[in-house]
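Figure S7 source data.
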Amino acid sequence: MITLYGISASRAFRCLWMLEELGIDYRREPLDYRDQDALNDPAYRALNPNGRIPTLVDGDYVLWESMAINLYLARRYGQATGLWPDDEQAEGLAWQWSFWIMTEVEHPLLSVLMHRRVLPAEKRDPQRAARNQGLLRQPLGVLDQALRGRDWLLHDRFTVADLNLASVLGWARPARLSLRDWPALDAWLKRCLERPARRRAQID
Ligand SMILES: N[C@@H](CCC(=O)N[C@@H](CS)C(=O)NCC(=O)O)C(=O)O
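Tokens for the predicted glutathione complex:
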């Protein structure tokens, strides 16, 4: 049995989206990142010593870090659905883009989201949001360039690489970050976000 710990209004959403794309049976433990008691429960800490979500349990195998969970799930269960790339070089690109989104994009984009939308009004810092929006210009240009003339990042189909990137870039809209300057990226993101599995993963 596969169990995924986390609510969809968190980074666990990426893994729920992957599980829905795969169409495999899984159970969800709706652990909330604000519930410090539950995160610090020794039984949960034994699974994830970071005390964070998401955590995946597949039989007696335990994995944390959202991107690692998705790469594992796609490799183990996603060959038939085409979510896993066809060859080692395409696999390398899936890892490349997954590390890239976490190191170049996730932090500044989350900061824009927090300071424009999520934090209570008195805690928002518009200058911080603007600064981080500025930091995103370069990496968003890189992705836009890579997507010009193509529908998907790898091969001719939606793969784990698209899912991992789109699950982070999906914050752009709630963060009120216009993607007008990057039309290939904008069109690709819409294609990804329209997928029925993404809608199904939006549970809470
Ligand atoms: N790099 C980790 C980050 C996990 C993470 O920070 N999760 C947040 C929720 S989105 C959390 O559990 N926060 C609880 C806390 O920090 O106490 C991943 O991608 O899985």
